[in-house]
């Protein structure tokens, strides 16, 4: 088993978190939606696995390259 | 209503039947009459900018107010409007310091708990930039539109909704070009041509248009360029240096590429400012020669021309109607919604200035 860090590609606000800890996800599943300069930007799972950590909550501000979730494969 | 839906990146838009909600208290239903097909739509289609799918693209439109929410007093049914993606809340720090185009408040969107503005069979369709104008109706926040005079043709008004505001605004507001100064614009699509036109209105002395398509360079001359450079046939930086005898006061990059952003900086003279208008793909880094900062060269971004669109757009209409702003030449073809994919493909080739969808 390995832990994969999921990063935000952009600076923005967390608008909606689409998963909860323990959820099984597939590659490219949307984990959360960020809002940045009026754009709705998805943060997608980079691999299949289980969401074991969510490091942000809705309305948080996230920075570019910030780790926002961890998936265990 | 019919709408052009993007379901998968790099796939054509599908014309589908989509449902639209009733206006909330501060929302306005707009029936678009004209919608420009903009190069920025392509960035979201090809994934260089990720976006939630499915979505309805389109963000440059003008139309008629169909219905208003209970708290809306600014417009009424029948008013002519231009829509703008720079929806502002009006009370955040950015808005209150005059930087409305940088407002990031989520309150101009619906919350995650509300019924989405656009949906299909009870599944949400994500609204694109709070607008989604490739559709027969738009439901938007009252702060995402401006009322306009009724003698302004809708197709040309639509262009003011994005490309004109972005290009002219970058010159007027972001860079603050002074009369007599030297300007180079890299990329002569809709936004670049608008920047050239804006530089001419601002009274720039030298206006150098740079592109790789001769027909666009000809159009640039008609809009005010004093010099043109085909970057595919000559050394653009070297020519700019020669024309300006040492570099420009202002350069504008209107493509969205690392190489051209770096060229915009290299074309500057001492104290010059490069303004990046183009949407550089997420994750792309640009490199500058550090020693150039000793010559007080500057580089900055520009988002939607740093607009205050409720002030700017009526002024741009006045510029158009008085002959200063050239919009007639910017429309290469008027099409139907069903032909939107042809318009997007034409943008990829770079030959046409702009297609505008005309709704029945």
Give structural attributes.
heterodimer; A: mainly beta; OB fold (Dihydrolipoamide Acetyltransferase, E2P); four-stranded antiparallel β-sheet; 0% helix; B: 360 residues; Quinone Oxidoreductase, Chain A, domain 1; Rossmann fold; 2 domains; seven-stranded mixed β-sheet; 19 strands; 27% helix
What does this structure look like?
The complex is a heterodimer of chains A (73) and B (360). With 73 residues, chain A is mainly β. Chain A has one domain: RNA polymerase II/Efflux pump adaptor protein, barrel-sandwich hybrid domain (OB fold (Dihydrolipoamide Acetyltransferase, E2P), Beta Barrel), CATH 2.40.50.100. In chain A, 0% of the residues lie in helices and 55% in strands. Chain A is built from no helices and 8 strands. Chain A has strands at 3-7, 12-17, 24-25, 30-36, 39-44, 49-54, 61-62, 67-72. In chain A, the strands form 2 sheets. Chain A has a 4-stranded antiparallel β-sheet with strand order 1-8-6-3, with no helix packed on it. A 4-stranded antiparallel β-sheet of chain A has the order 5-4-2-7, with no helix packed on it. In chain A, a hairpin with a 2-residue loop joins strand 4 and strand 5. Chain B has 360 residues and is α/β, with parallel strands linked by helices. Chain B folds into 2 domains: 2-147 and 327-358, Medium-chain alcohol dehydrogenases, catalytic domain (Quinone Oxidoreductase, Chain A, domain 1, Alpha-Beta Complex), CATH 3.90.180.10; 169-302, NAD(P)-binding Rossmann-like Domain (Rossmann fold). Chain B has 9 helices and 19 strands. Chain B has helices at 39-45, 93-96, 154-175, 190-202, 214-222, 236-244, 258-266, 309-321, 340-349; strands at 2-6, 14-17, 19-20, 27-37, 55-56, 61-68, 80-83, 118-120, 123-127, 138-141, 145-147, 182-186, 206-211, 227-230, 248-253, 268-276, 298-301, 333-335, 355-358. In chain B, the strands form 3 sheets. In chain B, strands 4, 6, 7, 10, 11, 18 and 19 form a 7-stranded mixed β-sheet that branches. In chain B, strands 2-1-5-9-8-3 form a 6-stranded mixed β-sheet, with no helix packed on it. In chain B, strands 14-13-12-15-16-17 form a 6-stranded parallel β-sheet, sandwiched between helices. In chain B, helix 3 (154-175) packs across helix 4 (190-202) and helix 3 (154-175) packs across helix 8 (309-321). The relative contact order of chain B is 0.16.
């Amino acid at each position: 088993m390995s832990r994969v860090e999921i990063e935000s590609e952009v600076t923005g606000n967390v608008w909606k978190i689409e998963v909860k800890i323990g959820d099984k996800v597939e590659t490219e599943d949307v984990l959360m939606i960020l809002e940045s300069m009026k754009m709705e930007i998805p943060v997608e799972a980079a691999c299949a696995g289980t969401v074991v950590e969510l490091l942000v909550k809705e309305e948080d501000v996230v920075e570019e390259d910030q780790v926002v979730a961890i998936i265990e494969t | 209503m019919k709408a052009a839906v993007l379901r998968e990146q790099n796939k054509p838009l599908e014309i589908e039947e989509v449902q639209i909600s009733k206006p909330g208290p501060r929302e306005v239903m707009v029936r678009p009459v004209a919608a420009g097909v903009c190069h920025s739509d392509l960035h979201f289609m090809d994934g260089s900018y990720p976006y939630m799918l499915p979505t309805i693209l389109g963000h440059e439109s003008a139309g008629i107010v169909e219905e208003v929410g209970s708290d809306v007093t600014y417009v009424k049914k029948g008013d002519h409007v231009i829509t703008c993606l720079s929806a502002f809340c009006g009370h955040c720090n950015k808005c209150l310091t005059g930087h409305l185009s940088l407002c990031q408040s989520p309150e101009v969107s619906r919350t995650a708990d509300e019924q989405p503005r656009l949906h299909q069979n009870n599944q949400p369709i994500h609204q694109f930039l709070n607008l989604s104008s490739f559709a027969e109706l738009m439901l938007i926040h009252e702060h995402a539109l401006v009322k306009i005079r009724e003698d302004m043709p809708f197709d040309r008004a639509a262009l003011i909704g994005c490309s004109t505001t972005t290009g002219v605004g970058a010159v007027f507001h972001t860079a603050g070009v002074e009369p007599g100064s030297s300007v180079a614009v890299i990329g002569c699509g809709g936004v670049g041509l608008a920047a050239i036109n804006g530089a001419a209105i601002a009274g720039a002395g030298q206006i150098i248009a740079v592109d790789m398509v001769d027909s666009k360079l000809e159009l640039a001359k008609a809009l005010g360029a004093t010099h043109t450079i085909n970057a595919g046939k000559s050394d653009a930086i070297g020519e700019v240096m020669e024309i300006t005898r040492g570099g420009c006061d202002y350069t504008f990059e209107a493509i969205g590429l690392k190489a051209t952003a770096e060229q915009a900086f290299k074309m500057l003279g001492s104290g010059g400012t490069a303004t990046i208008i183009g949407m550089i793909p997420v994750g792309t880094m640009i490199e500058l020669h550090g020693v150039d900062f000793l010559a007080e060269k500057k580089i900055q971004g520009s988002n939607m021309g740093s607009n205050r669109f409720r002030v700017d757009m009526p002024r741009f209409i006045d510029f158009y109607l008085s002959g200063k702003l050239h919009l007639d030449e910017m429309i290469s073809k008027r099409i139907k919604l069903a032909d939107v994919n042809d318009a997007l493909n034409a943008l990829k080739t770079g030959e046409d200035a702009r297609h505008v969808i005309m709704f029945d």
